[in-house]
């Protein structure tokens, strides 16, 4: 099947920080240092397929670092975050004309961050609309829409510090934190967090009692992790996490569940610096927090030869995309022998399959 690239001019007046497809791949949101968000729709025509502008508007008072879509069951909903320390929730108003700058209405602002909001991620959970935010103040905050059909009411449910050593670092917009939820069904929620200037990434697990516990560390990085992505498992017996790093490498980690004795699990948690306790002060074990994973670095690629800024899995977790300062989007997949390889390298004008 032939493949093609569709190039279009976004019309942004400054650097584009992020682009994001909706669940079906028919819509695209772009955000920029020009403080504007633009929503695009893919229109298929007999002569040519094009991306048409749905609307564009000034969304923040500083550079917008990320814009993402909520799952489609909650309607047409976008969240955006910025250097202005705010996260905003936007909802499409189909009664408003396209390109009227009124098509997308602001429903709520999350303003608890004391520094730039560097990353955001909607939780994969069903029956509740949750959003995690990651700020330069070193705190991950988790919010929930009190009524998913009414996006004007959100509440902060939980928060945790990224540093497991309780180090209070100065608020630095260049701290480089990033987050992603585990998209797979587990006993309790999990997420993976890029540790910024502490170098590396760590899994955090919910203990079932409103606490997030620092857990397994993803080793091997020599500089900051710019982006992180947890793969859908699609019935695999193991899980995969990919990282994009300032040290020019794309890494893929394999997580295999271990069944350790309870005492050994508690010892590991004590070594990490925090053990969840009940109100009586006794250690508790619940859900995913009681499970341990063996972490294995199974692939490391330096093909970008430059800083890597983004990694993302496809919906089945079988293809990984990465992009970096070399101006290329690279696609990675595994062969029958279980080894990961580059399957394509995409530039603005051409697609050149890699040599096998």
UniProtKB/TrEMBL annotation:
Gene Ontology BP term (one): mRNA transport
Signal peptide range: none
Compositionally biased residues, Polar residues: 279-289
Cellular component annotations (GO), alphabetically ordered: nuclear pore outer ring; Seh1-associated complex
Domain of life according to the entry: Eukaryota
Pfam families: WD40 (PF00400)
Chain positions covered by the region annotation Disordered: 261-289
UniProt entry keywords in alphabetical sequence: mRNA transport, Nuclear pore complex, Nucleus, Protein transport, Repeat, Translocation, Transport, WD repeat
InterPro entries with a match to the protein in the record: Sec13/Seh1_fam, WD40/YVTN_repeat-like_dom_sf, WD40_PAC1, WD40_repeat_dom_sf, WD40_rpt
WD repeats: from-to residues: 9-41, 218-255, 301-332
Compartmental location: Nucleus, Nuclear pore complex
GO function terms (MF aspect): structural molecule activity
UniProt similarity note: Belongs to the WD repeat SEC13 family.
Name the UniProt record assigns to this protein: Nucleoporin SEH1
Source species of the chain: Mucor circinelloides f. circinelloides (strain 1006PhL)
């Amino acid at each position: 099947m032939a493949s093609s690239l569709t190039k279009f001019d976004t019309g942004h007046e400054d650097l584009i920080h992020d682009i994001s497809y909706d669940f079906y791949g028919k819509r695209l949101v772009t955000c920029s240092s020009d403080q504007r968000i633009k929503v695009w729709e893919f229109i298929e025509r007999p002569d040519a397929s094009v991306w048409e502008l749905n609307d564009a508007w000034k969304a923040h008072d500083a550079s917008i670092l990320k814009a993402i879509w909520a799952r489609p069951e909650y309607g047409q909903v976008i969240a955006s975050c910025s250097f202005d320390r705010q996260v905003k929730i936007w909802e499409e108003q189909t009664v408003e004309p396209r390109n009227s700058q009124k098509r997308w209405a602001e429903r709520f602002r999350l303003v608890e961050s004391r520094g730039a909001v560097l990353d955001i991620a909607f939780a994969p959970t069903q029956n509740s609309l949750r959003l995690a935010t990651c700020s330069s103040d070193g705190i991950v905050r988790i919010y929930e829409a009190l009524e998913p059909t009414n996006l004007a009411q959100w509440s902060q449910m939980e928060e945790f510090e990224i540093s497991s050593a309780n180090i209070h670092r100065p608020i630095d917009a260049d701290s480089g934190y990033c987050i992603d939820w585990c998209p797979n069904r587990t006993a309790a929620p999990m997420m993976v967090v890029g540790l910024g200037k502490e170098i590396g990434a760590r899994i955090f697990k919910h203990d079932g009692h409103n606490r997030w516990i620092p857990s397994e560390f993803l080793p091997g990085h020599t500089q900051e992790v710019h982006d992180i992505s947890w793969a859908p498992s699609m019935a695999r017996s193991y899980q995969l996490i990919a990282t994009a790093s300032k040290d020019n490498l794309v890494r893929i980690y394999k997580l295999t569940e271990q069944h350790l004795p309870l005492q050994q699990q508690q010892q590991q948690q004590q070594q990490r610096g925090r053990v969840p306790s009940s109100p009586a002060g006794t250690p508790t074990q619940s859900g995913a927090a009681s499970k341990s994973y063996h972490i294995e670095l199974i692939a490391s690629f330096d093909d970008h030869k430059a800083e890597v800024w983004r990694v993302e899995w496809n919906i089945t977790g079988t293809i990984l995309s990465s992009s970096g300062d070399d101006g290329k989007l690279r696609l990675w997949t595994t062969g029958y022998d279980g080894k990961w390889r580059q399957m394509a390298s995409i530039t603005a004008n051409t697609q050149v399959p890699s040599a096998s």
